[in-house]
Amino acid sequence: MQRFAWPLFAAAIILAVALILSTESQLPAVVATHFGPGGRADGFIPHDRYVALIVGLAAGMPLALAAVMAWLPRVAPKLFKLDRCKRWADPKARPAILASTATFGVLEGALVAAFVAGVHFTLIASHESVPPRLDKAVFIPILVAFVVLTLAACFVHTRATRRA
User: Distance between CA atoms of 36 and 126, rounded to whole angstroms?
Assistant: First the structure.
């Protein structure tokens, strides 16, 4: 799985950003970005700011997550107090644990990119009605899928690091 993680990560970010940029024209000049009770829009930002924000989130959050998970434990293990954990302190197990942690961060980053793109498509669907209304039938499955896949990734990562 580790050798497929980085290409999948790059593809997820590129695809999310491409999909967002290819569909942003479907949104109005002022975009509803927050929804209150009953799905009514109660927060708005200008279109250009929305595009910059959503593209920044789709690319920036996964990159930051991957960097923290793949790079930081290697260069600053004391920051995380990893030397206090038996498994991390074992010199034989440490390379496998670092590799598994990096893979987890990269795959979770890909999930975040997909989730941000899903939120964007939810906003497009919300703007099909006037005034904009959050379509829970679109948003809830995206949110549940993200949470379930994140929990599954956490479970797999925990099992992998225990075996290392």
Answer: 13
